[in-house]
Amino acid sequence: MWRRAARRGAVVAGPLHHTWRRSLHFRVVAITLVTSSLLVSSFAYLVATQSTNILLDRTRNAALKQLQVDTDYAAEQLRAFNQAYDQQVQTSLRNIASYLSRGGPEQGGAIVALTASKQPYLRTAQSFDVSPLISDDLAHQVAVDSRVSDQIRTHDFGAGPTKYLVTGSPVPTGFGPIELYYIVPLTTEDQTAGQIRTMVLLTGAALVILLGVLSALVTRLVVRPVRVAARTAQRLSAGLLDQRMAVRGEDDLALLAASFNQMATNLQRQIVRLEEMSRLQRRFTSDVSHELRTPLTTVRMAADLIFAERDEFDPAVARAAELLQAELDRFEGLLTDLLEISRFDAGFAMLDAEPTDLVPVVRRVVERLGGVSARAGVPIEVSLPETPVIAEVDPRRVERILRNLVGNAVEHGEGRPVSVALGADDSAVAVTVRDRGIGLRPGEEKLVFNRFWRADPSRARQTGGTGLGLSISLEDARLHGGWLEAWGAPGQGAQFRLTLPVRAGDRLTSSPLRLVPPDALPPNAIEVRPTTLEVSA
Fold first, then answer.
1. Max Cα distance, the chain (Å)
2. Could you list the residue ranges that cross the membrane (predicted)?
């Protein structure tokens, strides 16, 4: 039962918790209602309690005054009797009780009883059966302790439970003290106290509702401009730079709207200026790259002719021809990379995806870099599945990514083996390239994809790279909707992981290969997804 109640409570509290977290308006109104309810409830309880006590004290004082008058009257009437067993004493007690009751509660009087606890010869004289209303404690205080006492009793005489104020006082007589009890029903006081409580509760409820409405209206005046500002900011972030807030009045909210509009105008001006500068820069890069193609072709033809005849030249001239040929190759690669980068920047790069087996793609990249790895003394270890790994990718771009990753690993391998692994699951394929060189310092895994960034500027390149390879690889991975991530640690080398979706257009959620190599983890460590540069579509 408790679990069922807890589940129902969770079902009810779920939407409220969601609204509480997302709506400032709801939070302010709810806090106002709860706080005002507590305050009004405390005030209502205090007023009702004090009102009831005042009514009860007034009734008690009146009853005690009347009790004193009745006590004096009864003592005066019984002063002449010296013997308790005199028949006239009993008759006088009945007459006194009847006279003092003044017709009873029905005629505006009270209930009066005369008892003689110490006189066994005398019977109780009463205008009504009051034995259920006189408790033993009260009787002891009046008869034994000879004190004037009172208490409130509740009893049902057939018309429903009714409260009574029972007061008692000893009456001195010539034959010994007797007890006089003056009993007043509190029906009128109860009704008055109930009306006061009802009035206070209704007034408190109306006050709470009024406070809730006022807080809702006041909060709406403040929250509405904030919501308008949030929507305007969202439109600005979506590229609608002409969006502005309406300025009404001259208060603080109007100042907020005016300041927001001024900020939006300045941002629009800066963004337009930066976009224009970026457009000019991209066009300049593209135009320069294209324009350099023609003289490069001419220089290439002349260099190829000189390089082909280098054996007939002086050794120094032959060495210059070889250097010229190598630098022309690098310059041509740089132009190609600049053109590719300009296409990415302009948003003109297109993905030509087709079902491709990645196993031969990886093998082909490793074979083509075999000569470079042999010259650098860095062996390449390959771990490939025995079955084909099919994915919808652009094979040209994937091969370029892997060529850059493996080439960088060989260059930074420090003579140690480079490991290449291919893995796949139902939704993604991944390739990891691991070197065991000097590694990356903390924070550099976020910089390796920057254009022309080098971990060690004084280090000579072994593969003739242009400094744009990883940047282009990052854009190629993004074009596939995949991830290109880096991990590194000083003295433990670095590892790059390329993760691509099996089906073009799918969203990646995980990778079949881990980013941090198992041999780089401390013993008994649990791998946590590292905060490395991750790019997704």
1. 166
2. 28-48, 199-223
Bridge partner list, 493: 489
Task: State residue 524's pLDDT score.
Answer: 42
Please compute the mean of the pLDDT values over residues 467-489 and round it to a whole number: 87
**CA 185 from centroid of its chain's CA atoms:** 59
Which residue is it, tokens 């009004």? 40
Residue 388: Cβ within 10 Å count: 11
Cα gap 323→329, rounded to integer Å: 10
Query: Pick from 452, 411, 464: which is nearest to 433 by CA?
Result: 411
CA pseudo-torsion sign 393, 397, 402, 405: negative
Question: What is the dihedral angle through the alpha carbons of 78, 84, 90, 91, rounded to the nearest 10 degrees?
Answer: -50
Secondary structure (DSSP) of 508-534: P---SS-SS-GGGSPTT----------
Mean pLDDT of the chain: 81
> What are the tokens at 11?
């079902």
Work out the pLDDT band at 535, boundaries 50, 70, 90: very low
* Predicted local distance difference test score (pLDDT) of residue 527: 40
Helices (H), 393-457: 395-411
Residue recorded with tokens 């208490």: 151
Q: Nearest Cα to 264, choosing from 237, 297, 299, 293? A: 237
The string of pLDDT tens digits covering residues 343-370 is: 666 666 778 889 999 999 999 999 988 8
Better-predicted residue by pLDDT, 30 or 286: 30
> What's the CA gap between 335 and 290, in Å, rounded?
8
Q: What is the pTM of this model?
A: 0.46
- The residue length of the chain stands at 537
For the record, the structure tokens of 392 come out as: 């919808």
CA dist 224 to 57, 75, 218, 241, 330, Å?
54, 80, 10, 21, 60
Query: Is there a contact between 449 and 486 (Cβ–Cβ < 8 Å)?
Result: yes
Query: 184-200 in b/e burial notation, b at 16+ Cβ within 10 A?
Result: bbbeebeeebeebbeeb
Burial 424-455 (b: 16+ CB within 10 A, else e): beeebbbbbbbbbbbbbeeeebeebbeeeeeb
- Integer Cα distance of 171 and 143 in angstroms: 10
Which of 297-311, 327-341, 353-367 is the most confident on average? 353-367
For the stretch 74-83, contacts whose Cβ atoms lie closer than 8 Å and that sit 24 or more positions apart, written own/partner, are 74/100, 74/114, 74/171, 74/178, 74/180, 75/171, 75/172, 75/173, 78/171, 78/173, 78/174, 78/175, 78/178, 79/173, 79/174, 80/174, 81/173, 81/174, 81/175, 82/174, 82/175, 83/175
